[in-house]
Design brief:
Length: 69
């Protein structure tokens, strides 16, 4: 009796498929999705992303200038 229950549970367990895990979006990807939406504040998210991109570009320029002899 116990063997029948164990075999049945194993058979049922092997037939179940789980969905593959979806990749978790990065913070930038989430912000980009929000910025493209029509949600209240989406324009502010776009502006903040643009300001952040500008700051990164300026810092990269300063770093490259500091490395030049």
């Amino acid at each position: 009796m116990t063997r029948i229950v164990i075999v049945t549970l194993l058979a049922l367990g092997t037939g179940c498929k789980s969905e593959p895990a979806r990749p978790v979006p990065t913070e930038r990807q989430r912000d980009s999705i929000i910025g493209q939406s029509r949600l209240p504040g989406a324009q502010g998210v776009r502006g903040a992303m643009r300001a952040g991109d500008t700051a990164v570009a300026h810092n990269a320029l300063r770093d490259s200038l500091a490395r030049e002899p």
